[in-house]
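Explain my protein.
***
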Amino acid sequence: MINPILIEQELEKVKNARRLGGFDKTCVICSEPDQNVLELHHLSGEDYGDDVYPVCRNCHRKLTNKRANKPAPEYPSQLDQIGHWLIGLAQLLLELAKKAFEFGSVLIESAKVIPSPYGYALEATC
C-alpha cells in the first residue's frame, strides 16, 4: 500500500529542489540544511540583477534589512547595477567573516582542551 504522507514528503523535496536549483542545498552563511526554511537571496537586489544564492530565513532577514529597500529605476544604469552587486557581495562577505571569526574562536578554545596533535592539552602521565 502506498503511503500518502511519504508521497507528499517526496513531492515537497522535489518542489524545494526546483525552487532552490538542486537537492541538498544549505544556507551559504550558517549551513542550515532544512530545505523548507531556505530562500534565494538576490545578491544585488531583485531589481538590479539575477544572481541568487540560498540562505535561511534568519540570514536572509539580516542581509535584506541592511539594504535600503527603495524602488529601483525602471532601467538602472550599468554602474548602478554594478554598485548594487558590489554592495550585496560586501554584505555577504561581512556575514561570512563573522561566521569565520566565531568558528576560529571556537577552534582556538578547543585547542586548549583537545590532546595533541590537534590541540595542546597534555595527556595525564602515570
About this structure: Strands lie at 38-42, 52-56. The chain has three helices and two strands. Residues 78-111 form the longest helix (34 residues).
